[in-house]
Protein: Enoyl reductase (ER) domain-containing protein
Amino acid sequence: MVKVKSAAINPVDYKLPRFVIGPVFGLDFSGIVEEIGDNVTNFKVGDAVYGHAHGSLAEKAVSSANKIAKKTDDLTFSEAAALPVAYVTALQGLRLGKVTEGSSVLIIGASGGCGIAAIQLAKAMGAKRIIAICSGKNSQLVKETGATEVVDYTKESELQSFFATNKESIQCVYDAATGSGHGEKYTNASMSLLLKDVGEYVQLNGSAKVWTKGVVLKNLPKHQHLILTDMNTADLEEVSLLLKKINAKPLMNIMPFTEEGLKEGF
Ligand SMILES: NC(=O)c1ccc[n+]([C@@H]2O[C@H](COP(=O)([O-])OP(=O)(O)OC[C@H]3O[C@@H](n4cnc5c(N)ncnc54)[C@H](OP(=O)(O)O)[C@@H]3O)[C@@H](O)[C@H]2O)c1
Structure:
């Protein structure tokens, strides 16, 4: 059990039905360990930790030892609480996309939580070309975070021209926009951008059909992946190391833990 210091919210907190994620909102948190289970050997009372709990928007929360990591001193409690869902999803997505030193990566939905995380982690992994698709108003933000090129999806001709002139040139398309609820659809166009035989398309969301094929039947076409975040200690540690490598911090909007603060957050 932990005393929660900071908690973060993500789209999943208001998208998933309550019977799946429980009666208390919030999955991401940072805090101090107050009690440990009999079999826990890697944490002790008093440790500063961050990770995943069902119901983190509370004064205390219960987590599993394999879904948390020790917070390092370079991160504040708020920064650490901002990492789990967004950054572990991005890390696992870029890994599926086989991003390495020198890779070209397209990040769609680049100005959101999982998008910014992917830009920063792709940069830390040594990606050379990091293209961000977002609305023009967020162009400066994604550039400051590490994007080397920006495409404004609200300008239809700019978007079409990008897809027409970048065929078979990208190692990883990381798509945080498709299926987010407002008719976003990038899958078909993205597949044509992938480097022949080796490029990978990773989507964070999709239609019910894509979820069934991707998660239940596991038979999406070759080079197409749908991610379901697997929270674990090693990846929580890795995201904080990668951020440290490039001296980056998560972007945050901090609100007080009050009724007004929660309303503003959601
Ligand atoms: N499968 C999993 O395990 C998993 C894990 C985490 C998240 N997710 C999902 O991943 C998605 C992204 O999460 P998030 O936390 O990054 O959400 P978010 O913070 O709400 O960001 C969404 C972003 O999408 C952009 N966007 C909206 N319409 C777009 C379009 N037509 N083209 C390109 N970009 C568009 C917006 O950019 P602008 O403001 O610039 O317009 C916004 O910044 C959500 O659907 C979430 O549920 C899935």
Remarks:
- The chain has two domains: 2-82, 87-226.
- The first helix runs from residue 11 to 15.
- The CA atoms of residues 109 and 115 lie 6 Å apart.
